[in-house]
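Severity: low
Component: inverse-folding endpoint
Summary: output formatting inconsistent between runs
Steps to reproduce: submit the following structure tokens with default settings.
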């Protein structure tokens, strides 16, 4: 397995530990993470969104994602970008998240 694939898997694993404080499901299963890229030199790019543009804890969530990724062995730079294109919808959630939140 190449170094960047292994690092990408570690990043995705740590993203499962970040929760929106208003929703009891992690941001990965909520479908808030649109893209995870890791390069061989340790640069990590995460493009993500929030459930609503006016999310009052946006800064805290982005900071937690950045801190957790930065703490991973092999990461030299964590670039976490916020986007609202495309807008998040409930359809982006994993089946597990939908079940947890009573949407199934």
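Observed output (run 2 of 3):
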């Amino acid at each position: 397995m190449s170094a960047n694939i292994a690092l990408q898997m570690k990043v995705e694993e740590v993203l499962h530990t970040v929760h929106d404080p208003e929703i009891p499901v992690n941001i990965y299963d909520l479908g808030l993470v649109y893209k995870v890229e890791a390069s061989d030199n340790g640069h990590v790019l995460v493009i993500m969104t929030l459930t609503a543009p006016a999310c009052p804890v946006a800064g805290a969530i982005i900071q937690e994602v950045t801190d957790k990724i930065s703490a991973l062995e092999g990461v030299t730079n964590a670039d976490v970008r916020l986007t609202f294109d495309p807008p998040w919808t409930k359809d982006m959630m994993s089946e597990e998240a939908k079940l947890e939140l009573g949407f199934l």
